[in-house]
Specification:
single chain, mainly alpha, 7 helices, disordered C terminus, transmembrane helix, DUF996, transmembrane
Length: about 180
């Protein structure tokens, strides 16, 4: 992994960690995801494996669309409650909203876990695998409210993974790209 990719990925992950900061956190997390996407694009291009970047993008898109659709159902349920309609309809919409957002989070994090597990194999840095697993298990555990903390720890581990990954020599990178074809 070259130094540019390490720095972009590390800073991107770090900004995502800082996403919990009130007010500025959302902007930091968004910038973090953009930096991480650039780093993964660079890494996938240097390895001749476009699947890394496409899986990451799939995960992000699934997550964003799922949260957006879930929010629409959630707002619908709140509006139903405020208009004193049948409670069962409003609560049904809440269940649908939660189910959509939960499924999107789990499926989106699965794609990210897949990407980081592959990066762990290539870089021989097991922290990428651990970080990806923590993101995935954090998504699953959001039902019991500890999932957000587990995912947050996963982003911390990924930050450390990017910054501690050894830089490969040019000859090794060229050899792996040829071997990957």
């Amino acid at each position: 992994m070259d130094s540019n990719t390490k720095v972009l990925g590390g800073l991107g992950s770090l900004f995502i960690v800082f996403g919990v900061i009130p007010y500025a956190g959302g902007v930091l997390a968004l910038v973090g995801f953009v930096l991480l996407a650039i780093a993964l694009k660079n890494f996938s291009d240097s390895r001749g494996r476009p699947q890394f970047f496409s899986d990451f993008v799939k995960g992000i898109i699934i997550y964003i669309v799922g949260v957006f659709v879930g929010l629409i159902f959630g707002v619908g349920s709140i509006l139903s409650l405020s208009q004193e309609q049948e409670g069962i309809f409003a609560y049904g919409l809440m269940v649908v909203a939660f189910t959509i957002m939960y499924a999107a989070t789990v499926f989106g994090s699965y794609y990210m876990k897949k990407v980081f597990s592959e990066i762990a194999l290539i870089t021989a840095n097991g922290l990428f695998d651990w970080g990806g697993k923590l993101l995935f298990w954090g998504a699953i555990l959001t039902v019991v409210a500890v999932g957000a903390v587990v995912s947050w720890i996963g982003w911390i581990v990924l930050t450390v993974a990017f910054f501690t990954t050894q830089e490969n020599m040019k000859e090794e990178r060229d050899g792996e790209v040829k071997g990957a074809s």
